[in-house]
Every structure is written in structure tokens, then in C-alpha cells.
Amino acid sequence: MQQKTSSSEKGSPKQVYLEVKENSELLKFLLEQLKGKSRTTVKALLAHRQVAVGSHTITQFDYPVLVGQQVTITYGKIPEQIRYKGLRIIFEDPHIIVIEKEAGMLSIATAKEKLLTTYSILSGHVKREDPNNRIFVVHRLDRDTSGIMMFAKSEAVQSTLQRSWQEAIIERTYVAVVEGVVEKDEGTIHSFLKENKALIMYSTKVPGEGDEAITHYKVLRRGDEISLVEVKLETGRKNQIRVHMKELGYPIVGDKKYGAKLNLIGRTCLHARVLSFIHPVSGQEMRYETPVPGRFMSVFARHEKI
Q1: Are 188 and 176 in contact (CB under 8 A)?
Q2: What region, left, alpha or beta, does residue 76 occupy, with left being phi > 0 and alpha being psi -120 to 50 degrees?
Q3: Which residue of the set 62, 93, 142, 255 is catalytic?
Q4: Which of 15, 84, 140, 171 has its CA 20 to 30 A from that of 99?
């Protein structure tokens, strides 16, 4: 085993450096290298952000490690992860960044808002390591929509993801609080979406009149005048969920633009809960999930179905 230990200053955490001699997965590599350490102990190192591949902290047990890379294990207290207003970094490697965005944060700049955006914050984040680093948009979430997003760290990776988006994305699941008591437990909405001159998307059943859009939904909970639904996208069109829920007769709570009358928590009640995809470089299947926002659930205390 190629292993080096740093001679840290007093009080600094001890670090062990391992060189990758053959392609493998991170957990398997660590178990082979750290003789005598149990599987539970090694998984705890990953969970506690004590393992880095190159300069990137990795928590994913099946992350691919390649010949020539250096794996660093830090024993002791890890410095606090950098926190940013409006977003949380879930995963980062040399190719992509996966984040959870809060409602109210723009994905990218507009004519009115140029400074505090998800894009600008992440641009600053990658430049901390190298001033020449850049960030590239892969997809977007509306300002009032919270949840999981992915950005590319190179133009080549952005191009790969956008070119093969339908094939690369395994699952995009959202949750929404909608107006009305949804009658059917589950269903599918299939139409064609087009944007009018007022920049509002609308739905038509006429093929060729717009981009094909397919949305699957399932009711998770019903109140006396609202419902919590899980929504899975088969296609990813602009405002697709908002338009389709309006078409179904159950606009998303807080979404005045698409017909909502209720505004229960001061925002559109739409959250991107799950993003699963094929990694554009390693080919590994990645899956990230966040819980249903607590504020979504709290509204049912006041609107519980009797």
C-alpha cells in the first residue's frame, strides 16, 4: 500500500494520503487500503466528510477512483464547510456541482437581478480554488421553486449533459401543494406547451403546436381545500409542472401567474425533491434526494380534510 502520513502542526488533524494503483470504487478502495478498519468505520469516514479525492471532498461510497489519483483521509475534526446564503452544496467533484437551492434565489441573472444568483455564488465558489475556474448552467429552477439543481464545471461537460439530457436523466421528482382536492389518486398529463407574446406558457392538445410535455402525478395527502402531490417529469419543458397542474384544475398554491388564488406561505409551493442521473464523465448512476419542505406540511394543520 502506498501510504503517506502528514506531519501536521500541533492541534491540526492527522492526514493519510493513499495513491490509487488501479481503477476502483471509493469504498472498495478504502476497505482494501485500510486493513483492520471495519466497513462501518470506513463508511463513517465518508459520511463525516473525512475523505477527499484530489482536492474534492467525497461522501459517495461508489464514487469512481482512477489510477494516479490521490485519496486523502483526515482523522480529527474537519473544518466547517463553507456556507452560502440561499443554497447548500450537496455534491461536488471536478466535473459537476449538485446543490439544493432555496426559494427566492434566481438560477441565473436577469435584467433586474444581476448579483445574488445561484450562478454567481457558485462562480465565486469555484474561483476560490482557481481564479480561472468557471461554472456552466445545465438546467434551471424558477425563482420561487426550491430544490435540487446541477451545474457543470466545464463547457465540455455542459455540452455532454445538454446534448444527452433525456438519456442522462433517470428521475426528476417534485412535490407541490396544489389548490383543490385532487380526485384521482394518480394520473398523467400529456400535451404540447407553447409560449405566448406575454411570455406565459400555455398547453394545447394539438401535436406540432408546441413542445411535447408529459407529467405524471400522484396524490400524497389531501386537505379540505389543498392537496400534496408528487410529480415526475418525463419531459422537462419551461414551467411544465405549473402549466399542467393549472390545466388539470389544481394550480400550485402561491403561483398567481398560473391561476392560483391561495398564497399560504408567501411563495410558490413547488420543490425539486429528487434528481437522479448518469454522471457525464464516470458513467455512474447518481441520486440525490431532499425531504418535503416542512412549511409544505405545516399548511395541512390548518387545512386538514375531515
Answers
A1: no
A2: left
A3: 142
A4: 15
pLDDT tens-digit series, residues 28-75: 999 999 988 999 999 999 888 888 887 677 888 888 888 888 898 988
Is domain 3-75 annotated with CATH 3.10.290.10? yes
What is the reported pTM? 0.75
Fold of 169-273+295-301: Pseudouridine synthase (3.30.2350)
pLDDT digits (tens, 9 = 90+) for 82-141: 778 899 998 888 899 999 999 998 888 766 656 689 999 999 999 988 899 999 999 999
Contacts of 34 (CB under 8 A, 6+ apart): 42, 73
Long-range contacts of 35-43 (CB under 8 A, 24+ apart): 35/1
Amino acid at 190: H
Give the β-pairing of 3-5 and 70-75.
unpaired
Residue 142 is a catalytic residue: yes
Other C-beta atoms within 10 Å of 124: how many? Answer: 12
> Is 3.30.1200.10 the CATH classification of the domain at 87-163?
no
In 3D space, the residue among 150, 148, 145 whose CA is nearest the CA of residue 160 turns out to be 150
